[in-house]
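Worked Example 4.2. Consider the chain below.
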Amino acid sequence: MITSLSYDISYKMKLNLKKNWKRNHHCGDLNATYENKEVILNGWIKKIRDHGHLLFIDMADESGLVQIVLDTNQDHSFNVKDLHYDAVISIKGLVKKRPKEMQNKKIPTGMIEIPVEDLLLLSSCKAPPFREGDSINENLALKYRYLDFRRRSDLKNNLKIRHRITQIIREELSNLEFYEIETPILYKSTPEGARDFLVPSRNQKGSFYALPQSPQTLKQLLMISGFGKYFQIAKCFRDEDLRSNRQPEFSQLDLEMSFVEEKDIKDITENLLKVLWKKIKNETITDFPSLSYQTALDRFGTDKPDLRNPLELKILKEETIKQSGLKILQTSLKENHQTKSLFVKNLQLSRSRLDQLNDLTKSLGGGGLLWIQKSKEGLKSPAKKWTTEDQLNSLYEASGRSKNGLCLICSGESSIVNTVLSQLINIIGKEQNLIDTQKTRFVWITDFPFFEYDSKKKKWTPLHHPFTKPQENDLKTIDTVDPKDLAQVKACSYDIVCNGHELGGGSIRIHDSSLQKKIFSLLGLSDKEIDEQFGFFLEALQYGTPPHGGIAWGIERLVMLLTNSENIRSTMAFPKSASGACLMSAAPSEVHLENLLDLGISISRKKD
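Applying the procedure from the previous section yields the following structure tokens:
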């Protein structure tokens, strides 16, 4: 018997609903050992194959799918055509083995099927905007995210793995006597690099809370409180430009410890990463090398190197540049610019591809890309117009001694040269299959500069955040350091990088109130600004603050790496679009005028 559930439930249907329709098994869990057992299943119709009076239906739930068989010659209380894609049904039947010629060994339930004895249509489904297997654009997928989960098992699996990851983290840290402590979401605006999301106060008009960019000051206050080991999987908010690995709201594993040194925090991090990679990917991690910030820039052009890629950069010496005979390189040398080369052994690229790489260089701010290609046919390079073959060969050999290969040279401001060549390392590494994607490579990046100069804002900013302790050698001179020479100050900070992604970053913190105030001053804050923004924190530091430090990992990036996903959006339940909008709910959206009046807010809109 097949019955239907609709908004107008008849007396007959009410009787039918009194039957036991609660499932006793999941679709994907069934196999041949359940033969001749009665099962009740709940789920969605994913596919219908019409074979005359028999309908072969793929029925699915969160565990997987199973084939059910419906005989349409039975009497039905509704039209069988009401059974369509993504309709929700309950069925009862005995599990049967499929005939050998109909068995499907590609799926776990492929050896069995369930002839339907009774069926209840729980919920109909209008024609969906896409179906399983459809190729759709990301905006449509985000608008119907709840349907995309039903379409793509990999998305659903990512969230299941994310759940398992956070469970492992909680268990491991709890075993190490860390306390999980929640900190406020409504907090004070304390500048940490990005823009704050502000929340207006109704009771104190004109005043605002800020959604925390991180629980930085709060976790330091917990150290002052006497909680020696704290952790939290914290929600964080940053109103910044978005990229494939950024979202306006995200989660991070946040931990802090008292009376520790950098090594203690690294040990905790490494051991936890080893456990996660073993339990989630069954991969044994043994090596956590370390590179200084400057060494990473020199060798890879980035502080987030992918050590699976064997390609490295080489800084060309002054003597090599002078002997090259190339005025463009010599001019760059006079202007104290940097010249670096990327050498790829045995690689030969077409002229059109080299032109594309040159265009990419220019789009990234570089003046152009000089290339030298050597093969059994000899040297090829556009620079032949301006120098001799011997000089060109010397430049080629200074980059990499090999009979055949490609040398790419970029010259200019170091930041631009590094940006260009680090991109080329990634591009060529992927195109030439040089990256060992079967392995995971971690690296610690240390010895970061404390300050960096923001040319747009024309002021110094902290490379990490202002709560980081300067290194011991710089502590002695911090009171006398020339504000124009802040780039020389090094920080007690460290990043953990995995496969070219910054997974986490941390530091040993400042625990002295006067030193903290000095750092704020060097960043250009007046005494009044320091008191307004950080007065509460500076006062707290005066009440017996222990030396302490910590680290924070991006949970979405962690899940992305452990699931081999391409971006963090596939690791979140309801991510935002590239513009920061929720396409599903149309947020952010306008609010009623009366709500704004309650908050004492008026909005000025530009005329079209």
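Residues 3-15 have pLDDT under 50 and may be disordered. The first strand starts at residue 2 and ends at 4. Compare this with Example 4.1 before moving on.
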